[in-house]
Amino acid sequence: MISYGRQAITAEDIDTVVAVLKSDFLTQGPQVPRFEQALCQQLHAAHAVAANSATSALHLACRALSLAPGDRFWTSPISFVASANCGLFCGASVDFVDIDPHTFNICPEKLEQKLTRAAHQNQLPKLIIPVHLGGLPCDMAAIASLARRYDIKIIEDASHALGGHYQDHPIGSGQHSDITVFSFHPVKIITTGEGGAALTQSADLAETMRLLRSHGVTREQQKMLGESDGDWYYQQIELGYNYRLTDIQAALGTQQLSRLRQYVSRRQQLARRYDEAFADLPLRLQRQTPTAQSAYHLYLLRVPAAERKAVFNELRAKKIGAHVHYIPIHTQPYFQKMGFAWGDFPAAEAFYREALSIPLHPQMSDNDQQTVIRALRSYCKQQSFNKVAVL
Ligand SMILES: *Cc1c(COP(=O)(O)O)cnc(C)c1O
Predict the structure, then answer these.
(1) 0.90 exceeded by pTM
(2) Which among 139, 144, 137 has a CA at the least distance from the CA of 160?
(3) Alpha carbon of 318 to ligand 1 centroid (Å)
(4) How far apart, in whole angstroms, are the C-alpha atoms of residue 205 and residue 127?
(5) Ligand 1 closest atom vs CA 131
(6) What are the angstrom distances between the C-alpha of 195 and each of 33, 146, 187?
(7) What pLDDT score does 216 carry?
(8) Is the CB of residue 95 less than 8 Å from the CB of residue 72?
(9) Phi then psi for 75, rounded to 5 degrees?
(10) Distance between CA atoms of 97 and 92, rounded to whole angstroms?
(11) Which of 47, 123, 199, 269 could form a Cys-Cys staple with 206, CB 3.0–4.6 A?
(12) Rounded to whole angstroms, how far apart are CA atoms 310 and 373?
């Protein structure tokens, strides 16, 4: 099977992990701050808080921005469910902003219309979570200007976008948001097995996220109620979690991060080749935007809805790991129980019916890519395909 995404682990990665196993610290020792500093340096952020997943980091970000019961937050319906769950963990209520049919990201015009309505009804969200789908940065300038108008906070779900750029700044530098979250799950751009991080320019937000990452427990005298009882002493001052990353994982992360540029440029090269190979086919590719450079976590395309299942099955039969990203979050049974229904976000649903992801990862060989290209081209040349291909 040519897999749609796969981690790249080097002999040096393995040696690094083994060295940590032989050291004094297995969890949150010296390797975690080292990894956090490397993230800050590479992504031009002031603070990084590593966590045991992006889901945890998103939850920490929502908590640090004081999302609470009674509050609202909005995200994209075309994302992994964690983009919505993080705010639900805080007891807030979720709503979605429909996507742009070309970029597949949250649509700024629809966001503006929805904000105008919400302002009239006194139902504005406290925060918005734009998702950089497939690694393509959202129109952050437009989103941030709307957020400023209504005093709304922004968390970028950049799980797909490590190594991407927006207006010549790395995603993570926080030009247009309060906090940016990355995932280090094995299918993502770099991996720590499981892991994530929240980056911010704000020392206060970083400090809150650090406190909540480890039970809400502090050893700092200034934060304590009353006097410390001695060197053993700690106090729990908030309700926190155990969201710590291990030193084993952090050491792997630092190693992986040193190859970020290499990984992303290979992904971009493969993506350009797909773009050229499919230019004459009745497919819709993800439209890139002039101010953004995608990290290409995924190569996303739209095939006619009537053909999608057959194309998918045909690729799988040829041992090509096709996927569909994503089933619209609001159509999940759990969200339907909240009152969402099919029909609520038509652009997202139309995208879902046509969506197809094809293999793209830095270790994919040119030969494997040719196999994928040939398979998709030969399918599209069939008579039946062209008849329904009225995109
Ligand atoms: C993978 C992913 C997450 C969750 O990441 P984990 O590290 O697995 O918790 C969140 N949002 C998006 C968009 C993702 O793709």
Answers:
(1) yes
(2) 137
(3) 28
(4) 14
(5) 13
(6) 14, 31, 12
(7) 98
(8) yes
(9) -145, -170
(10) 16
(11) 47
(12) 16
Which atom from ligand 1 is nearest to the alpha carbon of 133? 13
Low-confidence ranges of the chain (pLDDT < 70): 383-391
Length of the chain: 391
Query: For ligand 1, is residue 54 a contact (CB within 6 Å)?
Result: yes
- The CB of 49 under 6 Å from ligand 1? The reply is no
- Output the six-digit token pair for 182: 């990355």
Burial of 381 (0-12, 13-18, 19+ CB in 10 A): exposed
* pLDDT of the residue at 386: 63
Q: Which amino acid is at 17?
A: V
Gap between the Cα atoms of 382 and 159, Å rounded: 36
Asked whether 79 lines ligand 1 (CB < 6 A), one says yes
Integer Cα distance of 192 and 185 in angstroms: 7
Sign of the CA dihedral running 300, 356, 9, 256:
positive
Residue with tokens 């101010």: 291
Q: Ligand 1 center to residue 183 CA distance, Å?
A: 6
Q: In the structure encoding, which two tokens stand for residue 41, read together? A: 């340096």
